[in-house]
Amino acid sequence: MADWAPVLVGVVLFVLLQPGLLFSFPGNGKQLEFSSMKTNGKAIFIHTLIFFALYAILILAVHLHIFTG
């Protein structure tokens, strides 16, 4: 039995938290931009911190597990 939760959570969070896809915080012109498809270094850093925090909470604190087989 393999635990697929870290892989699936990582992929879903990576897709949803791409700067510029759904939102970009901080944006290029405003503090928060939606679907701008543009990014900057600050937004990449902030989205990386948000990704790490959510990933750690879901995997380590909540003990999320998805077993197959």
Automatic annotation (TrEMBL):
Pfam families listed in its UniProt record: DUF3339 (PF11820)
Transmembrane segments annotated in the record for this chain: 6-23, 44-66
Query: Per UniProt, which keywords does this protein have?
Result: Membrane, Transmembrane, Transmembrane helix
Top-level taxonomic group? Eukaryota
Which PANTHER family does the record match to this protein? OS05G0103400 PROTEIN, TRANSMEMBRANE PROTEIN
What is this protein's name? Uncharacterized protein
